Amino acid sequence: xxxxxxxxxxxxxxxxxxxxxxxxxxxxxxxxxxxxxxxxxxxxxxxxxxxxxxxxxxxxxxxxxxxxxxxxxxxxxxxxxxxxxxxxxxxxxxxxxxxxxxxxxxxxxxxxxxxxxxxxxxxxxxxxxxxxxxxxxxxxxxxxxxxxxxxxxxxxxxxxxxxxxxxxxxxxxxxxxxxxxxxxxxxxxxxxxxxxxxxxxxxxxxxxxxxxxxxxxxxxxxxxxxxxxxxxxxxxxxxxxxxxxxxxxxxxxxxxxxxxxxxxxxxxxx
Amino acid sequence: xxxxxxxxxxxxxxxxxxxxxxxxxxxxxxxxxxxxxxxxxxxxxxxxxxxxxxxxxxxxxxxxxxxxxxxxxxxxxxxxxxxxxxxxxxxxxxxxxxxxxxxxxxxxxxxxxxxxxxxxxxxxxxxxxxxxxxxxxxxxxxxxxxxxxxxxxxxxxxxxxxxxxxxxxxxxxxxxxxxxxxxxxxxxxxxxxxxxxxxxxxxxxxxxxxxxxxxxxxxxxxxxxxxxxxxxxxxxxxxxxxxxxxxxxxxxxxxxxxxxxxxxxxxxxx
Amino acid sequence: xxxxxxxxxxxxxxxxxxxxxxxxxxxxxxxxxxxxxxxxxxxxxxxxxxxxxxxxxxxxxxxxxxxxxxxxxxxxxxxxxxxxxxxxxxxxxxxxxxxxxxxxxxxxxxxxxxxxxxxxxxxxxxxxxxxxxxxxxxxxxxxxxxxxxxxxxxxxxxxxxxxxxxxxxxxxxxxxxxxxxxxxxxxxxxxxxxxxxxxxxxxxxxxxxxxxxxxxxxxxxxxxxxxxxxxxxxxxxxxxxxxxxxxxxxxxxxxxxxxxxxxxxxxxxx
Lengths: 270, 270, 270
Fold this sequence. Notes:
Chain A has an eight-stranded mixed β-sheet with strand order 2-1-3-4-5-6-7-8, with helices on both faces. Chain A contains eleven helices and eight strands. Chain A is of the alpha/beta class. Chain A has one domain: UDP-N-acetylmuramoyl-L-alanine:D-glutamate ligase. The interface between A and B is medium-sized, with 35 and 31 residues.
């Protein structure tokens, strides 16, 4: 169980941000075709290096040398599905931290079965909205598509169960993000609604979590740090944007510009 | 036959815009890999919810619960091809309105054959440029790739024939968009050249048409409304942009900000 | 061997830019799923017409009528792999210039074998970073993913060997781009670091090279022109941007706005 206070999390997050930029972790993203470009640009902006190696026979070997891996089920075509299992297996063997984002699971059969198969490979981090986390835990029927129909707090039981059964950190996105290792629960209350008005707002956060996870074995701390940096940057961007369109470039600029001092001043972690 | 006057179309379009935002229709987009991100962001900006469920066994069941479906043939890989037929069939059975965008058909064999197969499933709306609509009606040889080599008026006979034979609304894009149900012809003269200077300008409009189609059974009215909102937003955006690059975020902002009053003041419908 | 002086290259580049805009070459891009949208928008902004025809049975016939073809190995799924070989073969037969971008080859097995197969089809232009060009020549082990771990000058021997053995122009990207036909070596020193802080900066240049290659049989001159226009536009954009996010729309605007006069004033070619 983590014994960090909220203030510890803020200062750790700031230190991890500096470390990320000095180490430029290589993040393999096997993600959906809607958000590939945005995800790669988010990683570059924050200071990581993206690589989308998503075909069988390449995905596994690459996962062994990558700093972190994201497996996102948004558009699970046959080749990437095979690559996901290969990458997750190899990551587990090699000690590469990997993130599972079970996009829109619940009633859709292919991704729901795949998510269970991947969960059994014990992801280091599970990231999703409340509906998805509840569905992954087998406690509900899932939402309609990618909508977050439930409050993150409603998924706390599901998140805790997954964390304890599979040894994963579970991060549930919402107005306040809820992150747990099965014992401690950390809440990050930064962010902006416009992050939900552009596609990939949640998906790209999963890639950022994979990058931060490579920096320290305290996965609760790195997941909190990724969330805090990402959502504080969203707040900074919103003040420069006129709508969801101008929010995207402003957000990438903010991810590039946000520093430890700003993070310390603005992060709201409880 | 619609008996709406142009002024009726303007006021109906304004009312439908408000309705779209209150209902947030869920639009399933099986579209090409070039425009997935832009299409999703267009739908979010205008007030709809995007979902790209594009694999066999998931696409059909999802089309039954979606508000509307877009089937766009821009990059017709094998899995999405199967998903398109599955989704169109399920949409037809469930009464979910669906849009066919026969991108670049004519001489390219796979998509041309697929477009005919899908046309026989009687799409609620067909959207394309003049070349594509002429090719779909079997009246010409198609253009070079995605270029609009013909004036929309030149496709009016083809559009009318498709509308009458398959019960579809047919919308032909150009400087003035021509939309017909086989009897009435409505022309929308808003828009901006920069909409043709970014990829996906036409493709994303198809997704917006699918969203509006879920709001009312008068498919001519909803297709006109989608076109008017989309092209008026383009005009608003062009005045804030320095070129095609800055046009994209400005356009997404405008889609988010355009309201019924602005639409009533600016829509040019004949 | 080219006998152009650097000043000849500058004036030729300016003339080719005007010619590109008057001819609007049709560029078929079989590229990776991360950069499709950006690549298409770059082509449109600069004045070319993009088409992504990337499936077997369509890719070959289309390559015969396209002005130029890009084959980029970033995410080599099975269908595009087959389409790449088909398109490269057809392009070679039809005299359509084509560009090979061997993204991240070296240790990744599928793309490395595919790159060698495609190289044997004698691409008109090979574009890559130093690691990739060295790996393609069989002289090194490749980098980690898409990173440019070597200076372009370190790949000059590899570039020269490929150029002589396969009759290709070889362009190596870096702070100074090095371009050779196996005899002459031209260096273009424009550009901006932010071009490496967004995904697809190199990939889209390959598509631009394919467009310029359609304008003249002097492929060294057209490749230098594509590089100069592209990197000068990046410089112009950087002065209008706050970070990598706002750089993207500014870059597309600059590609649209850059003219022969600006190019003559700013291009640094040696």
